[in-house]
Sequence to fold (1194 residues):
Amino acid sequence: MPIYRAPVKDQLFLLNDVLNIGKYSNLPGYADATPDLVSAILDEAAKFCENELQPINHSGDQEGCTRHDDGSVTTPKGFKEAYAKYVEGGWTGLVQDPEYGGQGLPHVLGLCLEEMLVSANHAFAMYPGLSSGAMAAISIDGSDEQKQKYLPKMIEGTWTGTMNLTEPHCGTDLGMLRTKAEPQADGSYKITGTKIFISAGDHDLAENIIHLVLARLPDAPKGVKGISLFIVPKYKVGDDGSVGEFNNVNTASIEHKMGIHGNSTCVLSYEDATGYLIGEANKGLRSMFIMMNAARIGVGVQGFANAEVAYQNAVEYAKERIQGRSLKGAANPDKPADPIIVHPDVRRMLMNAKSFNEAARAASLWCGQLVDLSHKAETEEDRTAADDMVSLLTPIIKGVFTDRGFEYCVSSQQVFGGHGYIVETGMEQFVRDARICQIYEGANGIQALDLVGRKLPSKGGAGAQAFFKFAGEIREQAKGDDRLRPFTDALGAGLKDLQAATMWLMQNAMQNPDNAGAGSTAYMHLFGHVLLGTMWTWMAKVAADKLDAGTDDPTFYETKLTTGRYYMKRRMPETAALLAELQAGADEVMALDVANF
Amino acid sequence: MPIYRAPVKDQLFLLNDVLNIGKYSNLPGYADATPDLVSAILDEAAKFCENELQPINHSGDQEGCTRHDDGSVTTPKGFKEAYAKYVEGGWTGLVQDPEYGGQGLPHVLGLCLEEMLVSANHAFAMYPGLSSGAMAAISIDGSDEQKQKYLPKMIEGTWTGTMNLTEPHCGTDLGMLRTKAEPQADGSYKITGTKIFISAGDHDLAENIIHLVLARLPDAPKGVKGISLFIVPKYKVGDDGSVGEFNNVNTASIEHKMGIHGNSTCVLSYEDATGYLIGEANKGLRSMFIMMNAARIGVGVQGFANAEVAYQNAVEYAKERIQGRSLKGAANPDKPADPIIVHPDVRRMLMNAKSFNEAARAASLWCGQLVDLSHKAETEEDRTAADDMVSLLTPIIKGVFTDRGFEYCVSSQQVFGGHGYIVETGMEQFVRDARICQIYEGANGIQALDLVGRKLPSKGGAGAQAFFKFAGEIREQAKGDDRLRPFTDALGAGLKDLQAATMWLMQNAMQNPDNAGAGSTAYMHLFGHVLLGTMWTWMAKVAADKLDAGTDDPTFYETKLTTGRYYMKRRMPETAALLAELQAGADEVMALDVANF
Fold:
């Protein structure tokens, strides 16, 4: 059975030494996040994830969710009990608004929790995860009355939430959606339509489920400008907050999926269900996108969270499995063979995952901190600057971290040889579960288009310029230290390639938008390398300073330097190939007539 | 439900126009392979695969194999009937020795069949596939009596075969295997031990199963030099060929696997089962490796065969699914959206798969032809030259084509968006099935080591030199034609990188073998690009010549040129990144103490 150990030490290194969250103690939420409290919270979260969630991850996959004849849905054995403990521990309100009962701690802490939850049990993590998304939408666009009615119960975890976008004929292109909302005399709406792929769509964990549903008013304009957002509870909620009668949100079926079997992904059929408009009519997509952008950073975290647990298990196996001999002679001469971790190609797979996971964690937490600053920084200018950077980073974190997270789940499975293909080791589950991250919350091709088509040109390229400046400063600070030379060299080369790629897009995308589309994924991955290389250079500088200052734990910082050098020397050179792919342009991509594929 | 159309036209192009198999009509088997016969055979094979095998692929995955309480095993619904038709069609003997009832057709035709079988139904294809492996071992090392006793029944398909290598504690490192063979007075042996991961290990398709089993004699030397190979039939075979009593080969269980559910991968428990030594005592591994090398080329074919069927389905979906608009304005203004094949990033995924599949098919068939020449060419010199090239190409075809085949199954699944994650579309099955190819018949890390540690230095590098010469000649022939400039340019750059990589290995692997190990996978993939680029240059030259000569079907050849240019311009530049990864050496790969992973 798989193991999991939450990376608390690494998270504390990032929060305290790299991101230096202590310096933001003037901001709401951060004031409470003292080093001791943060450390205690992460320890508790680790305990819960390791001891409660991880043990029911594999069994949850094998059992899946069940829809009963009466239409009710039960989650796998142990999920209900684990969720009760999760609620009891106060985890549902960790980063939520204190006004409605939340603890109001920094968003960046929420991402630390999210990583652990997903590593321990991706399918379980989605129940509170979707709830957070729904709470975000209500917080942004809900009336005071709506907030009062729904948020406290959701924050305390008594109710959960979902996001309902997709319909059978439309996913990416929401302009085509057909679910209807008919206005009623009392100001409510009757919602009718079918939604598919609804994560956490029905279950037995909570007493009510608050669905956020995109639908169309009778007089709505065509396309994306005619979509409104509605609150549709599974059971109607009285004015006193009491849970009343069933609201005709029927679970038509549970989807049969490649993975995340422990999460009930539902087909929901709304039949004159009572809904309540949230925010302005016909402006529903805007709210949904604000919510989705936040969710996308979370999905990026899921990408490396899966790779992290897969990596940890591959390391254990590589230490224990004996097979063959070191190329340099027996490392273990008194045993019939050496542990496979002596083999360079096994280490290559482990180091690929390790050097990615740690930098992806750093980038995600940095972005989480920027999300906090975008809401809470003291000046408008600082808030805007943080928001611009978050906007730019979001598609990269979602697209790159889930593509590469999946890749490292696959390579960690590979370390197990034939045993990795066998269900019982649990490695193939990580691959199947991680696969969804590349697809949901906007498939990765959409992330790449969002990056080159929207985020890059936004405000005249201000976000990208700010990133180049930031990365350049990180590089500048690391200069002059021989230990950091591999970092500054490789980051310099990566930045040069990224700037050339950006320039090429500016020159070639206007005249032919297909040039942007054809190179969008290459550009996103190029940017991803530079982002991760920047994080490594930052971490390496901090580690070198720690070593210079004297530390009880030199091994931790030396390991950071080695792992970072691995990334800079072996992975960063891919930027050149990605630049060449981009610069090859759209001609051959678009040349074939459809009939000739 | 997924579709499949066998690529007969493309296979005929390769056999007739590129490989020009007609010019070998002086060789045994090739004489019979007239263009008309070859075309008729491929058409029949296509019909069988499309109409009989593909329709039971998805249902076979969902149902899986069943072990009953009495220890017997049944395959999924329809497999028994399909196998009977397969036997009836004479497919089991297509390339087998006419002396024992085979049709003796060229091996290269067998690979065409193998591709179609796997695309249509990977799990099914493994039953005859393993049989071919077992027949190869008996053909190589069996006594005349053994050949007479087993081959005719196996060639006609009445019996199937398996290969039994792996045990719970050893896979790659067969030196540790424990299965015992005790000599009996009558010259037979009693075989006792447990074998795992035995593909096609038990089933209801054939009246007997001939297991080829690696085991140890009582006085055998330790390690790999003490392994012998035995024939162990499931049911004893009388001297008259009659099938007799059960031979104590017990199916302890069917493995639970990520994919290929329609194939019964068994744990076999041998309890004093009667076995017969095949070949020399203690030389069993040698025979097993001859057999396995042939099987590895077949697994490489499986790699792109999975990608091919996944690609075909992605193309169909991309033509039908309407979602969003072309970046250049509506392509389909009278519909609410355009088919997603208008989007450059969707085309990128399709072109990646297409441009890989077609070149991988070419390389595999070229290698298949070389296998034929290694056995049948008129001079010893020609046979040796062909054999050297096959040895070199085998790990590249197995390792690269299965890694990339998997990648393109994943990207073809991605084209389906959320629907690709749903079981019913069948796309996730291709991913799960293709995954095994990277693992079995020697995990891909082993292929990479085989390439750099064994094949490359073999005979003073003769194989690699012959390949460089061949690729250089292909490039030379394409020079001076402007249409082929992208091919000769990119192939030139790729060859330069490959030669630099080879030189680096020669200079750095001797002093530190970990340098070879740490760069082996990068080197293998670099070589893979150059191999595929060579194939594209070859095909492009043939296509250009056809166009110049005038043809009824210019679109076919123009599409080849476009698809090839895509590969050369967008994929070949990866060689530079792979060279950089190799040249980074082993330092950071090996630096960490085991405790610091």
Notes: Residues 8-141 of chain A form a domain with the Butyryl-Coa Dehydrogenase, subunit A; domain 1 fold (CATH 1.10.540.10). Chain A has a mean pLDDT of 97. Chain A touches chain B through 93 residues (CB under 8 Å).
